[in-house]
């Protein structure tokens, strides 16, 4: 944050320097434009000279505007940064309380939230059952940056907390489920590999009409809603805006050795930090970590559902299995080619009689190899 502040002040200093130089140039031009009367007494060489300067506002309108703009930006930067600092302190306490109640190691031991920019803070915690760690991103409005703030207002971007929990691999039956604002459902189906590959929009009468459910199985949907999520999603004023549970990557992998992590992600809206809203926010964040336990302990999919989910992943990742097999074959071919090259170098050093015997032996080996290939094809 201090680094960004220094960069901002340097930029404003450049504006001020530019304005000062413009004023100096203007003064020089004005001084040069004042005519000298022919009847005036000649100036004695070496004597002090004074030329009156027109300091009217009309001559320096642009320069004054630049200086005022620089002062305004500086004032807004410090005001916006201070406002975000005050808000972060109000939200750090409830976030800290929930994390410390659920994790044994929170933050760096001194602070829970760490500044990433003048409007963004990061969090990290570990040491909890059913998961490896949690990381989060507190996103405030860019009050210190007028352009970014206008963009937030135009896009109706809300202040929020994004949380990502990496689950233990062996405690979670892999599936994809999401509950998101309906206006974002199509974008998620288009942009996220895991959701577009495995899930589809499903209808439900127990959630708000503003919420869209994306799931790959009715069994998964029912068991996730039975966690109490249905009650929260039925409340249009709920602070929990998004929940995504997945065992596949959000972006399509480019190779077969991609990292497969099981995750639970949630987005919580930040309301005005009144006492009642802070208490409501704490309950919503607590529910996110309750879902971690529910996924590990409360979800018991039917055998046919488990088989269906497994087959869907086998089909989806078949392409990557072929890529892995091809890479293995290429590596083997490269090894054999290198071995053959070394062998031929040794043959070239042999006597004619030794070479003739080696060639006969090699010919029989190649015939035997071809016969083995034919037998495998027949089988």
TrEMBL record:
The entry's keywords: Membrane, Signal, Transmembrane, Transmembrane helix
Superkingdom field: Eukaryota
Cleaved signal peptide residues: 1-24
Span list, region Disordered: 344-379
Pfam families recorded: CCDC47
Location in or out of the cell: Membrane
Any one GO MF annotation of this record: calcium ion binding
GO CC terms: endoplasmic reticulum; membrane
Any one of the GO BP annotations: endoplasmic reticulum calcium ion homeostasis
InterPro entries listed in its UniProt record: CCDC47
Compositionally biased region (Basic and acidic residues): 344-373
Its membrane topology: Single-pass membrane protein
PANTHER family, sorted: ADIPOCYTE-SPECIFIC PROTEIN 4-RELATED, PAT COMPLEX SUBUNIT CCDC47
Protein name: DUF1682-domain-containing protein
Organism lineage: Eukaryota, Fungi, Fungi incertae sedis, Zoopagomycota, Kickxellomycotina
């Amino acid at each position: 944050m201090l680094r960004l502040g220094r960069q901002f002040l340097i930029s404003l200093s450049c504006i001020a320097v530019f304005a000062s130089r413009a004023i100096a140039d203007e003064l020089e031009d004005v001084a040069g434009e004042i005519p000298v009367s022919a009847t005036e007494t000649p100036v004695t060489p070496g004597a002090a000279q004074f030329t009156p300067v027109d300091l009217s506002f009309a001559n320096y309108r642009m320069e004054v505007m630049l200086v005022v703009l620089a002062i305004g930006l500086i004032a807004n930067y410090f005001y916006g940064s201070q406002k975000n600092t005050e808000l972060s302190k109000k939200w750090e306490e409830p976030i800290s309380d929930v994390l410390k109640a659920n994790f044994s190691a929170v933050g760096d031991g001194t602070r829970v939230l760490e500044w990433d920019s003048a409007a963004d803070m990061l969090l990290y915690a570990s040491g909890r059952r059913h998961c490896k760690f949690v990381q989060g991103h507190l996103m405030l409005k860019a009050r210190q940056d007028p352009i970014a703030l206008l963009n937030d207002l135009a896009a109706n971007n809300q202040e929020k907390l994004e949380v990502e929990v990496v689950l233990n691999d062996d405690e979670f039956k892999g599936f994809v489920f999401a509950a998101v604002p309906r206006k974002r459902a199509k974008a998620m189906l288009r942009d996220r590999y895991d959701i577009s590959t495995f899930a589809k929009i499903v209808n439900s009468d127990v959630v708000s009409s503003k919420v869209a459910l994306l799931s790959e199985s009715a069994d998964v949907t029912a068991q996730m809603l039975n966690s109490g999520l249905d009650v929260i999603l039925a409340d249009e004023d709920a602070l929990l805006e998004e929940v995504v549970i997945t065992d596949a990557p959000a972006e399509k992998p480019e190779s077969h050795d991609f990292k497969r992590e099981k995750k639970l992600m949630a987005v919580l809206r930040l309301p005005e930090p009144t006492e009642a809203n802070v208490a409501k926010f704490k309950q919503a964040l607590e529910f996110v970590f309750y879902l971690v336990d529910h996924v590990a302990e409360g979800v018991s999919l039917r055998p046919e559902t488990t088989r269906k989910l497994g087959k869907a992943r086998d089909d989806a990742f078949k392409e990557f299995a072929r890529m892995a097999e091809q890479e293995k074959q290429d590596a083997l071919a490269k090894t054999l080619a290198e071995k053959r090259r070394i062998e031929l170098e040794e043959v070239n050093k042999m006597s004619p009689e030794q070479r003739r015997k080696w060639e006969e032996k090699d010919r029989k080996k190649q015939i035997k190899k071809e016969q083995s290939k034919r037998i495998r094809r027949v089988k």
